[in-house]
Amino acid sequence: MTKGLSTRIVRLSPWQGYVLSFGLVGLVTLLGLATHVFFDVTNIAMAYLLAVVVASALGGPGPSILACLFSVAILNFVFVPPIMSFGPPDTRYVFTLLVFLVVGMTTSSLTSRIRNQTEAAKRREHETATLYDLSRKLANSTRIDDMILSVVSSAKRMLGEEVIVFLPNPQDSEKPRIYTDKPNYMVSQLDVEGAVRLFRDDSISERALVPPYSGTRYLRLVSAQKTVGVMAVFSDARLADDQERLMEAFADLAAVYIERAQLAEDARDTEIVKAKEKLQTALLSSISHDLRTPLVSVIGVLSSLQEDKVGIDDATKNMAQVALEESERLNRLVSNLLSMSRIEAGATKILRQDSDVRDLIDSALEQLTRESSDRPINLSIPDEMPLINVDFGLIVQTLVNIMDNAFRYSPPGSPIDVNVKQIGGEVHIEVADRGIGIPQEDMARVFDKFYRAHNTNSVAGTGLGLSICKGIVEAHGGSVTAQNRPGGGSTLKIMLPVNRS
Amino acid sequence: MNQDKARILVVDDEQAIRRFLHVALTSQGYTAIDSSSGQEGISAAATSKPDAIVLDLGLPDMDGVEVIRLLREWTQIPIIVLSVRGSETDKIAALDAGADDYVTKPFGLPEFLARLRAALRRAAQPTSESLFEADDLKVDLARRLVTLSGKQVQLTPNEYDLLRCLVVHAGKVLTHRQILREVWGLSYEREFHMLHVNISNLRRKIESDRARPRYIVTESGVGYRLKTS
After folding, report:
1. Which residue of A13, A253, A256, B71 shows the fewest CB atoms closer than 10 Å?
2. Which residues of B touch A335 (CB under 8 A)?
């Protein structure tokens, strides 16, 4: 029945049982012949009954029934009058023989039933002990590989068949991770494909994968409605019901612990991410500090040279002016890089406050005083505008980037139109210029990091500005679009939700 | 007090910035006193009796806003805060704690010196005059009269109170909350929307180019300031 299961119950093979039955009955017959002068027939029948009980306890139902029938036959032939005749017994003994037959049969069936129950109980106890032992082993190991190998070797020992566990491979879904306790075991490609199909499609039944006559059996390892792995048992014959049950128990246990290990791994990963973010923030603040500190002195000194009362000639003043403008550009670049990293570090870095759209636009224009000095700016903004809950500094930076682009990519003196509208739950800010526009083939990519449109070679730039705008606006739950204007130039539109989403 | 001989205490942990400000201040005739931490700055403020303090908000030993709070417990000398872009909440906290003005790093020296002069002047003459004049704008507080290029401007009582508040503190940055508290009262200090609407209306009446306000300047995410000519 159960291969590979070591039981402590003595169990003889069938032919040993039958030999035992014959031997016992023969022994009792010899004893009976030697003593029948002193004992009554009923006493001898009791000795036969003992032989039946022993045969059933050691040999099982077949040998015990044989011993019973054999005993009745010999009793009738040898001990019950008419002696040495198979003819109908003396009426005095008919009842004795019938009772013997009934008691013998009942005893043998009861004994074998008890035997079976004891055996089953012992087996269950052993299974439970193995599963318990396994779960203790699993609870003590934190590495997922060790866990699965423990499951594989325990299952193999209990089932007596080759057991393999497949886990999905996040790097390559075609090549699942394979766990077996045979060092050089070659898993066939067909078996691997079977496991991959089970990972992919929850609707495929495990039984559909193998032909009905095959002993190979797949079982999903399911935890929280999710397939975390597949267990396969390679057997020559179909698995018995209790083996199936055992396999399922192993599968359940494995699934629970795989999930636990994955959660632990996730927690570790989160911790690493947190530590990384902390480092990034520390690095950023130190970079921002270290890059800006020199700029404070540089810009401060250069700006003082612009004062009229400074006694320098115009040429020197113009050179200082160029240096100042470039320093300011460098400063804006540093700000852009910092914002980019802040956005990429996550939405938690956004410091929202209720802000007036008008305020945002004024602040952006204020930073661009020099660039906008020769430009007509047509500002159209409704009187009644709701406050928007945004990070003031970041949105101002977005507007600065977009307006600065508008100034740089349009001819001197051309107008810039800024339109603000409320549409549903969104505030739309449009900045439109009469500049060179955006070539159609670049339209989809102008918001990509470090991407610059083909017609921008004559203007200095990093390709960071618009991608930062997109990052900032999207981090606020909004969106940003670019399109060409009828009549030349381009329009950039920022759409921001009024209430934080 | 002779302004040109004013003593200025600079509290900044960056040696380069201290040196730069030291040179800039002494070249203007001020006496500069340096200090590299909050603690040191507070004791220097007590011992050397400066006429104004230039305070960096990002100090290593203590929060700049806390420094302001401690200073304001015993002195009203003007405090000008140095801050970086993007930390509007810090600037608001500093102004609400009693700082007089702020400059965003990096800053132009002329602008910084102008702010410093204005702060020193305000400290020297705490009572403002009843007549305010800047370019074409004239506000006569005694007669409640506002004129633009000689023509009278009709303002609602709310708009006039708002302008009056700005005029009284002309040249000084006022946080949204400070304006709301002063014009409408303590219980209105979170009604930002009402403030924006009134500023917008006021601007429509006194500013000619709405994209480039000449009088009421927006202080990025912090508040407003009435420009003095």
Report:
1. A13
2. 85-86
Under 8 Å between Cβ of A120 and A240: no
Inter-chain CB proximity A359 and B218 less than 8 Å = yes
CATH T-level assignment (fold) for domain B131-226: Arc Repressor Mutant, subunit A (1.10.10)
Quote the number of domains for chain A: 3
Within a domain: residue A328?
no
Which residues of chain A neighbour B81 with C-beta distances below 8 Å?
Answer: none
Going by pLDDT thresholds of 50, 70 and 90, the confidence category of residue A346 is low
Same domain, A261 and A146: yes
Distance from CA of A475 to the nearest CA of B (A): 16
Write out pLDDT tens, residues A54-67: 888 887 778 888 88
Range of the domain at A168: 141-265
Q: How confident is the model at residue A500 (pLDDT cuts 50, 70, 90)?
A: low
Phi, psi (rounded to 5 degrees) for B8: -115, 125
Tokens of B191: 């009604």
Tokens of A376: 């007509």
Distances (CA, A) of A291 to A97, A189, A298, A327, A421: 112, 57, 11, 11, 38
Q: Do both A353 and A492 map to the same domain?
A: yes
**B85 interaction partners in chain A (CB closer than 8 Å):** 335, 393
Say if B3-124 and B131-226 have the same CATH topology.
no
CB-CB contact of B179 with B224 (8 Å): yes
- What residue segments make up the domains of chain B, in order of their start? 3-124, 131-226
In a domain, A367, yes or no: yes
CA distance linking residue A112 with residue A52, whole number of Å: 12
Highest mean pLDDT among A61-70, A183-192, B162-171: B162-171
Rounded to 10 degrees, the C-alpha dihedral A366/A367/A369/A375 comes to -90
Per the structure block, which two tokens stand in for A52? 């039946």
Q: Name the residue facing A393 among B17, B85, B213 (closest C-beta).
A: B85
Asked, for residue A295, whether it belongs to a domain, the answer is: no
CB atoms within 10 A of CB B124: 12
Nearest Cα of chain B lies from the Cα of A436 at a distance, in angstroms, of: 23
**Are residue A110 and residue A160 in the same domain, yes or no?**
no
- Mutant choice from A336, A362, A390 vs B, greatest count of B C-beta within 10 A: A362
Q: Is the pLDDT confidence value at A7 over 50?
A: no
Whether residues B192 and A356 touch (CB distance < 8 A) is answered with: yes
- Checking phi first, is residue B177 left (phi over 0); if not, alpha (psi -120 to 50) or beta? alpha
Q: For A373, name the nearest residue in chain B, comparing CA atoms only.
A: B212
Place of tokens 């060790």: A146
Query: pLDDT tens digits, residue range A220-251?
Result: 888 877 788 888 888 777 777 777 888 888 88
How is domain B3-124 classified at the CATH fold level? Answer: Rossmann fold (3.40.50)
